[in-house]
Write a structure and sequence with these properties.
Strand order of the largest sheet: 1-2
Shape: elongated
Number of helices: 16
Mean pLDDT: 85
Order of helices and strands: HHHHHEHHEHHHHEHHEHHH
Distance between the termini: 118 Å
Strand content: under 5%
Largest sheet: 2 strands, antiparallel
Radius of gyration: 39 Å
Number of strands: 4
């Protein structure tokens, strides 16, 4: 609060002048008490004391002198910029991606995006020697949007694996190891070898990151999930529509709180520890909050064999009608071979 501005509307100069209408710096005692900005903080006796202390010989209160006295003891330094520091909670969980090497994670991302990684390294190698500087590796990974999955320890491990004695990075060997997911090298030397196309398991290391549970926690999870599965089968509960209502973007994931709300609305009394246990099993995006309800439904709401066959036929390629063995294309009966021989 700027103290002097509170009294500017009632401040008038002792001499009327169009050029200086607000330069008096004094108000009457009643105006000072009525306009005093801190009436809730100060009792009326203190306000009367302040008015008496700054009163002039003519009975006016010199509020400008009071403003100057306040300004002398007030710091004119700007206030500290507001901060909201991120304080991470300690997490002792072991994640599944820690079992993979940096090459495995980069290979999964390259396969997922169908990236030609070698061409980006060749921009820094005009003589096509197969080597580039170690700092240029980080530049290439940043251009390809792959640096976010490579930690500092992974980067040092990558450099130490493919670095030459003089510190140059052998991107030729690195690209050959990454591209093994697309094609097998020297296939012409083994004509009988069979190769397979990349599938969902090839990109699993980059797409999924779960918590590694202990054997005791796995037993608890199996018991809890068997109890939920039994209740779903007995009551014929259809959980999918309720999860779909929460998944507006149709991405197959919802928050863990939304999962708890759906299970409570469907009559499943889960404790906080049960939700935490299921979250450790189905939160597969590297955090403890996003829940994969698609995998959860595949485990607790297993379809019957007839339903699986119908789904496979619906999603499979089109198959035409079988050729009739009794009628030809014009609808006439085809004679049996024994009748023809007789």
């Amino acid at each position: 609060v700027l103290f002097k501005q509170v009294f500017f509307d009632v401040d008038r100069a002792p001499v009327a002048s169009p050029a200086r209408p607000f330069m008096g710096g004094k108000v009457t005692r009643e105006q000072f008490i009525r306009r005093f900005p801190f009436k809730k903080e100060f009792p009326p006796e203190d306000v009367e004391l302040l008015a008496k202390n700054y009163m002039t010989n003519k009975g006016d209160v010199h509020f400008m002198a009071m403003h100057n006295d306040i300004s002398e003891v007030t710091s004119h330094e700007p206030p500290d910029f507001p901060r909201s520091d991120l304080v991470m909670k300690p997490d002792d969980s072991t994640w599944s991606q820690s079992r993979y090497t940096v090459v495995d994670k980069l290979r999964s991302k390259v396969v997922e995006g169908r990236i030609r990684i070698k061409e980006y390294f060749q921009d820094f190698d005009p003589l096509r020697k197969g080597y580039c500087a170690a700092s240029q590796v980080k530049t290439v990974l940043t251009i390809l949007n792959l640096s976010k999955i490579v930690t500092r320890e992974d980067y040092e491990q990558l450099i130490n694996t493919y670095a030459r004695e003089d510190g140059m990075f052998c991107y030729g060997d690195f690209c050959a190891d990454v591209n093994k997911a697309f094609a097998t090298p020297n296939l012409e030397k083994d004509p009988l070898a069979q190769t397979s196309m990349p599938d969902s398991t090839s990109t699993m290391a980059a797409r999924r990151n779960k918590v590694c549970l202990s054997a005791e926690r796995l037993c608890q999870w199996e018991w809890l999930e068997s109890k939920i599965r039994s209740k779903v089968q007995k009551r014929r509960v259809n959980l999918l529509p309720s999860f779909k209502d929460m998944d507006r973007s149709n991405c197959g994931h919802i928050t863990k709180n939304q999962f708890f709300r759906v299970m409570q609305s469907m009559g499943f009394d889960l404790s906080e520890d049960d939700v935490q246990l299921l979250g450790n099993m189905y939160c597969d995006l590297g955090d403890h909050f996003v829940f994969n309800y698609v995998d959860f439904l595949k485990s607790v709401d297993v379809p019957s064999e007839d339903v699986e066959l119908a789904i496979a036929q619906l999603n499979g390629p089109y198959k035409g009608d079988d050729i009739s063995h009794y009628f030809n294309a014009r609808g006439k009966v085809i004679p049996h071979e024994s009748a023809i021989l007789a």
